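Field: COMPLEX_INPUT
Field: COMPONENT_COUNT = two
Field: RESIDUE_TOTAL = 222
Field: MODE = joint
Values follow.
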Amino acid sequence: GIQVEQSPPDLILQEGANSTLRCNFSDSVNNLQWFHQNPWGQLINLFYIPSGTKQNGRLSATTVATERYSLLYISSSQTTDSGVYFCAMDTGRRALTFGSGTRLQVQP
Amino acid sequence: KAGVTQTPRYLIKTRGQQVTLSCSPISGHRSVSWYQQTPGQGLQFLFEYFSETQRNKGNFPGRFSGRQFSNSRSEMNVSTLELGDSALYLCASSLQADLADTQYFGPGTRLTVL
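Field: COMPLEX_OUTPUT
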């Protein structure tokens, strides 16, 4: 099946720092999405990005489908950015396969 | 517009019991998916429903079942609970039948099996 790998597994930042999270996938990209899970467990969809670049405020994402990776950029991080970031891809059967996540802790 | 709601939020059961979890999608959404999240296995797909039909099921035993009602609300049932069923159960809804559409997740039901 499709393999989705994320790095780094853990990241600690000082408030105001920038970061880049990476997602590698083993098959042709299909409906790649990025999610943020807050400390209370709520999963929020950040981007649907099968290719190209999108930006939403301090967050942006780029997917290079030909090289099978996607990047999530967080600029000027805030403590509210803490949580776990997941990338996920459709298996082709209307089911998302999630990576193992990057746990981000932003310290004040 | 109200988001995806899940009830109950927390649940404690003992081994051998059964449990039913409920998910109400965003109004107008017809696709509902269920996921199990555990520290060891991460987020895993359980099943997906569209217009009362289960279209896809993940690699889980038959103890896990679900259904969708005509108003798109969905329930999942786990029978003969095992300790390993302790997890956060998340449901997601989307407007279209295609995963190209944005998935909106509920807050989850945290199930503890003792």
